[in-house]
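In response to reviewer comment 3 from the previous cycle, which asked for concrete evidence that the modeling workflow produces usable outputs, we include below a single protein chain processed end to end. The sequence was submitted unchanged, and the resulting structure tokens are shown without manual editing.
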Amino acid sequence: MCEIFCFNSDKPKQVNQCLECFYNHSDEHPHGWGLANMQSEDSVISKEPVKASCSQNLKNILSNPVVGKNVFAHIRLATVGEIISPNCHPFIEADDNNRSWMLIHNGTIFDYPELDKYIDRENGDTDSERILLFIIDKINEFEQDKGAPSTIKERFAILTDIVNDLSKNNKLNLMIYDGDLTYIHSNMRDSLYYLNNDDGFLVASTPLDDDENWKPVELNKLFGLIDGNIVFESEEHVNEFILTEEHINKIEEHLKTMNPVERNDE
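The workflow returned the following structure tokens.
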């Protein structure tokens, strides 16, 4: 599937070493890379549908300091959608109150028909982009009913309800940023880890070094982070995802439809 990365801190820090370790996993995830340095002004987002280790653009970016409080990264192993730039994570979308939302996803949506209505609206053809469009619609509906922008606490409650429903029968490792809050969710065992230290809060699909303090992200809960601290934690839902042979067969059927050149790391 994919690997995802997040750094959340109370002050800007350089994260090049972490990113280099993360992107070194691209041999197993060759279908694209993305990097988002989310700031209150002038957020920097880069992505390409090529293997990270083969990207001159990424080499140029990492040759300079990457400094930020909210940094996200993704390497893609395609399970839904072609290998094109619009299908690379992160995905960015604004709600009706002009709040920018960013989403990266590790997983596959096997069963959630409500996302199908976004197929004609999305820029690419991934289930991940549809998740973000669905979230934006739910936020817009809430704020229209309220007649005012949502609070951080209200947005966390909305995302909790969405995740609880969307995680049924689907692998849903998510990192989302709404300009204030970073949301983290995992529902598959041993597929997302965190390290909390003086530098900040790191989250990644696999530990990025030998530090023994890396721990699995607690399953089936949504967490909200600000400035390197967990400020919200949802109740636990019951939708742990367990990969079955049926899931694997569906993924393999999709991969067979892809251009053989694309599958060979181009």
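Residues 260-266 have pLDDT under 50 and may be disordered. We consider this sufficient to address the reviewer's concern, and the full set will be provided in the supplementary archive.
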